[in-house]
Amino acid sequence: MSAEADRLLILEPGRAERHYWRDLWSYRELFAILAWRDLAVRYKQTVIGVVWAVLRPLLTMMIFTVIFSVVARLPSEGAAPYPILVYAAMLPWFLFSTILSEASNSLVSNANLISKVYFPRLIVPCATLLVSLVDFLVSFVLLLGLMAVFSFWPDWRILLLPLFILLAILAALGPALLMTAMNVKYRDFRFLIPFVVQFGLYVSPVGFSSSVVPEQWRLLYSLNPMVGVIDGFRWCLLGGEAQIYWPGFCLSLAVVAILLVIGVRYFRHTERTFADIV
Amino acid sequence: MSRPLSDTKLLMSDVVIRAENLGKKYIIGHQAERERYVALRDVIARNVGNFGRSLRDIVRGAANVAGDELEEFWALKNVNFEISRGDVVGIIGRNGAGKSTLLKVLSRITEPSEGRVEIKGRVASLLEVGTGFHPELTGRENIYLNGAILGMRRDEIKRKFDEIVAFSEIEKFLDTPVKRYSSGMYVRLAFAVAAHLEPEILVVDEVLAVGDAEFQKKCLGKMQDVAGHGRTVLFVSHNMGAVRALCKTAFLLRNGRLVSIGDTMAISAEYAAGSAGSSWQEVGPSEKPYAIRSAFLELLPHDLLRVTLDVASAAPKRLIVNALLQDAVGAPVGMASLGGYDPDQLVDLSEGESVIAFDVRLPALANGRYRVDVNLEEPYGHFLDHVTGELEFAVDRTPRNNHGRVLDVRWGAGCIELASATQIATPRGSDNSALSQATSSAPETCIS
After folding, report:
1. Considering B328, B332, B428, B446, which has the largest number of Cβ atoms within 10 A of its Cβ?
2. Which H, E and C letters describe chain A, residue by residue?
C-alpha cells in the first residue's frame, strides 16, 4: 500500500504503460469480482442457464451424429462411438465460440464502467472467460454421462486435458480481443460474430474426424487453430483411438500464438481511446 | 496551496499532482456528432465517397484534400497546475468548460493528447455514484462489486461493511436486488460505498446533485470529513455553496483553458462576473441571528434557476426561503418559495453556517434581464433577512418547438410567453351541418 502510494504515475499521450502487466495483476480482485458478477447474473436471471449449457451441445451432437455418421457415412476414429467423437470436439468448439461472442460484447455492455472508472480494460473481456469456462464444465459433466452410456472410457491421456483446455482458451482469446476492440469502434462488428461462429463450426473438424481430410491438404487445414485444439481434445478423451497429426498441430499452435499476440497488441493499442468512443 | 508552476523537473515531496501543458483533443466529424460510435458501413460509405471525390480531384488536377469532414475540438488546452498533498480544490466553470474532461484525464479514464501529468498516490475517481451497480444483484453483493470497481480491496470493504450499511440506512433491504430499491435508497447505498473510499487522491464530479436535501447535507458532511483527513480532493460541482464550503482553493476553467487559480471566494466571484447566466452577491457580517452571508444565482439548462445561499444561524431554526423574481425595471414577476406554499418544504437550519440550494423551475420567460431578491422568513411571518439588488440573470432563449421567435421584454407585452392558444375551428356559413350535429347531440342546450 505504501509502496503504491509513493509510486509516481506519469500520464502522457501515447505513453505505453510500463507497468501494464503489474497493474493488471494488482487489479486481480476486480477481475474476480467482475467474473463473479457475470456468473451470478447469468444463473440468477435464467432458470435455463444450466439447461442451456447442457442442451445446446447435446442437441448439436445428435444432429451432427445423424448427418455425418448416418447420412454421410463418415468414419469414426478407431473404435470410438461417433456421438463421443462429435461431443469431444463440441466441447472445445463451444468453449471457443462462447468466449468469442461473450467477450466481443463485453466492453460495449460495460460502457458505463469504462467511461467512469480506470482499470486495465483487458479485465473486462477476460472476466467473461470464466463464465464460458463454467458452461464448459457443465457440458463436460455431460460427456462423462455419455461415456457411461456407451461404456467407453478414456485412459491416462485425459490427465493432459487441462493443457488443451488452456490451449482452447488461448486460441479463442486472440480473435476475441481483436473482435472486442473492433466492436467498440465499429459497432456493427457484432453482426459478424454469429456468422464467424456458424462458419467456423463447419470448417472445423467438429462433426467429423480431421483424418478424413486428404493427406496433402492436412497441413493447410491446420491453419485453422481449432483443428489443433480439437485434435488435442480427441487425443485426450478417446483413449488412444485418435492420433495427433504433429506437423499440423504445431502449425495450429503457431497460429494460436500469432493471433494472441496480434489480439493483445491491437487491444492495448486501442484501449486508450475506448473511453472516448464507447 | 496551489502555486504557479516552477521549473524544477523533480516532483517536490508535497506536490501530488502536477500538470504541464495538458491538452485533450477530440476529433468531431459531422458524422460523429450524430452517433457516438462509428459503424463500419459508414466508414465504407464515407471512404467510397472520399475516394470518388479524390478521383474527381485527380482527374481535374485539383488539390486533393482529405478528411474535410473532420474538425478538431480542444476540450482542454495548455493547462498547468500543481496540487499539494491535503489540498481540497474546487473546479469551477460552465457546462463544457472542460471540468469533466480534466477529471477524466486525471483519473486515467482517457489519455491526454498533449502535455503531461505526474501523479503521486492512489487516485480514486467518483464521476458518478453507483457506477457498475447491477440491478439483479442484492445490496450486499453490490457493495462488494461497487467497492471493487472504485478500487477498494476486499478486506477493506469487509472491514467497512457495517459502516457502509449504517451510513446508507438500508439494513432491511440488504438482501433485496437493487432493482427493487427506490431511487433514494439506490443513491444512498451508492454514495455510502463511495464515501468510504480512502485513496490518497479523490476525484469527485457532481455527486452531491443527488438525493434529498437531508442526504445531501450528510454527504457534504462526509466530504468535509474526508477533506479534513489530509487527503487531496478535486471537486467539481455546480453547487457553488458546496464548493465554497469544501474548498479553499479553486480553479476556474473557461473553454478548456485554466483561466485562474486562487481563493475560492475570489474565483467564484470571477466566475459569476464572467457568465451572463449567473450572479453572485456577498453580504458583509451581520448582527442578525439568521443572516444570508452570500447568494449565488445560476441559470441551468431546461429553464432551471439554481439559487444557492450561505446562511449563518445562531440556533437551529425552521424557516421559509423566498425567491422573488422581478423584471429589469423592478416590476414583480413571481415568487418561488421553499416552505412558503408547502409546509413540508420548510428549511431546517442547524446552528452555524449552512448551505441552502434549490432549483426554481422558470416559466417561459421573455428574453431580457431579471433580478432576484431572496429573503428568509419565519413560518408565521417574521421577516429575518434578505438580499436585494445585485442578483441578476439574463434570459436569451432560442425559439422553442418550431416557433419563429421569442417574446422579448422590450416589446412591452410582459415577461411570460404564454403557450400558444389552441386554435378552435369556428363553424360558420357552409359548415352549418357540423354545428347542427354538435348541437343536436346536446338537446338540453338547444333552443327551439
Report:
1. B328
2. CHHHHCCEEEECCCCCCCCHHHHHHHCHHHHHHHHHHHHHHHHHHCCHHHHHHHHHHHHHHHHHHHHHHHHCCCCCCCCCCHHHHHHHHHHHHHHHHHHHHHHHHHHHHCHHHHCCCCCCCCHHHHHHHHHHHHHHHHHHHHHHHHHHHCCCCCCHHHHHHHHHHHHHHHHHHHHHHHHHHHHHHEHHHHHHHHHHHHHHHHHCCCCCCHHHCCHHHHHHHCCCHHHHHHHHHHHHHCCCCCCCCHHHHHHHHHHHHHHHHHHHHHHHHHHCCHHHHC
